[in-house]
Amino acid sequence: MLAQTSTSVMPFLGSDVAANYDTSQVVILPIAYEATTTYRRGCENGPDSILEASHQVEYYDEELDRETGCEVGIYTHETIADTRSGDISAEEMLKVTEETVSKLIGDRKFVIALGGEHSITAAIVEAYRKYYTEPFTVVQIDAHGDLRHSYEGSIHNHACVMRRIVDMDLPTVQIGIRAICKEEADLIKEKQLTVFRAREIANQPDWMERAISAIQTDKVFLTIDLDGIDPTLIPGVGTPEPGGLNWYALMTFLRRVCEKHNVIGCDVMELAPIVDSVVSQFTAAKLVYKIIGYQALAKGWFEAGT
Ligand SMILES: [Mn+2]
């Protein structure tokens, strides 16, 4: 049996601007799965929390001079692999995620998945890998390498997700990394993985130029673990680490990736909301909105709507 889904989901930005599925360019896919988090729990509540906070995001994007949410068709999918309604095995989660994303890609939707724990990304990337014949680069923003072969007895632990992707033989570019174990450091050297560490980002102004040119393929899948961002901006994550990207560096980087490369899909993972603070989920919602705006600009969706 496939993992249970919950049908009642509030649409991203609210029902006033929600598009229907057929006319949408963007599909927000909530994946409320949490099983292997080890420090602060709560990322199964991440998707709902981002959707709720998105209702407070200003439609008008002052950087782009556009009301992105009114011009781009954004559809919010029902929640999948929801562990709040009972245990789901990693295998079930991976299966339902890959099947759902494959269907959305087949319908030519730009998918933004909201997690949920980072292990989900392996299934999302697998769906793209099966769809595209040419390779694409997985660009990861994260505090952690996520390159362990296994962790706490599971290869599907959230600390192993990039290892699964390296094992798929896809090129990777890792950004904001500042917490890795010896096994990961050795793997980075052995496989000569491309890593832009948070220290470099803080101290070397040319990091962004180098990171953009380190992406060797036209197509890019973007996976954002919210702990890659400075935890003073987003404290509501399961495994916070000091340092990380600031908001404007992140925005400039995302805009340039969308302009210079063909971003085929993305996910925003690991939000674990903090009771009595809305800053993490609101920042995550705004991040999603900015990605939609940058993609719309790069893909010509604004022109299509005017
Ligand atoms: Mn992480």
UniProtKB/TrEMBL annotation:
Q: Which UniProt keywords apply?
A: Hydrolase, Manganese, Metal-binding
The record's Gene3D superfamilies line, in alphabetical order, gives: Ureohydrolase domain (3.40.800.10)
The question of whether Chaperone is a record keyword is answered with no
User: Any binding details for the cofactor?
Assistant: Binds 2 manganese ions per subunit.
Instruction: Read off the InterPro entries from this record.
Output: Agmatinase-rel (IPR005925), Ureohydrolase (IPR006035), Ureohydrolase_dom_sf (IPR023696), Ureohydrolase_Mn_BS (IPR020855)
Instruction: Tell me which family the UniProt entry assigns to this protein.
Output: Belongs to the arginase family. Agmatinase subfamily.
The molecule here is called Agmatinase
Species name = Hassallia byssoidea VB512170
State the gene name recorded for this protein: speB
